[in-house]
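Ticket 4471: requesting a sanity check on a complex prediction with magnesium ion. Repro inputs:
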Amino acid sequence: MKRDYEDAMRLVLPRRAYVVIRIDGRGFHTFTKHLERPYSRTLADALDRAAISLCGEMIGCRFAYGQSDEYSFLLTDFEKENAELWFDGNVQKIVSVSASLFTGYFNRAFAGEKIAAFDSRVLVISQRAEVEKYFLWRQLDASANSLNMLASAHYPHAELVGKSNTEKHELLFAKGVNWAKQTADFKRGRLVKRCADGNAWETDLSIPVFNRDTSYLDALIP
Ligand SMILES: Nc1nc2c(ncn2[C@@H]2O[C@H](COP(=O)(O)OP(=O)(O)OP(=O)(O)O)[C@@H](O)[C@H]2O)c(=O)[nH]1
Ligand SMILES: [Mg+2]
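Returned structure tokens:
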């Protein structure tokens, strides 16, 4: 049974590569229906608390980047000769346990009536420059999401369909709303990184625009 059926589905990550685990809220369009619009601090705080707890459980976690209803964790196993890979790189273990831990921690922190669920996926990236691009990509998505959320808090969906980002900025401007003046972490996302003591984890809510200040990610990616 084990060899014929379990082992047949056993997928293992390669060693000494960059591993990204992305966790994303399931159906959060509906889950967040009654939350603060455009941006909910309650939601962001609960996601941050869950990310901090998960960072502390994963082997080889370097940092995590969060925005909207998602968090991406970077794991590495090559700084030391004998460094371990979380669950020895067993993909099914990594995605199922990361999703279940994050879900548990989030629901405990959020303490809502409905239960939130999260999916998890794992990516392997071989080149450092591509890891940087991955996080630039998620941050571009953060800004796009944040503009859409702001626009849809002021205009009905039908008026925004097919509108470019520039047009959305203009529509908001017409109502005296400026996206640029919104809280930094709702525009750029948030980071969970190790505290100076090297043990605990903390959030950074005032991260730069990654492709404007490249030194920030540069210092974090091994
Ligand atoms: N009210 C509110 N909603 C938010 C906030 N951040 C994210 N969301 C919601 O979360 C959704 C996340 O989008 P997606 O992950 O693309 O879609 P989803 O509905 O979660 O669907 P799946 O991820 O495919 O399961 C957004 O569409 C928003 O509706 C927030 O700060 N406030
Ligand atoms: Mg989602």
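Notes from triage: The pocket of guanosine-5'-triphosphate (ligand 1) is lined by residues 24-29, 32, 35-37, 39-40, 43, 68-69 (CB under 6 Å). Leaving this open until the requester confirms.
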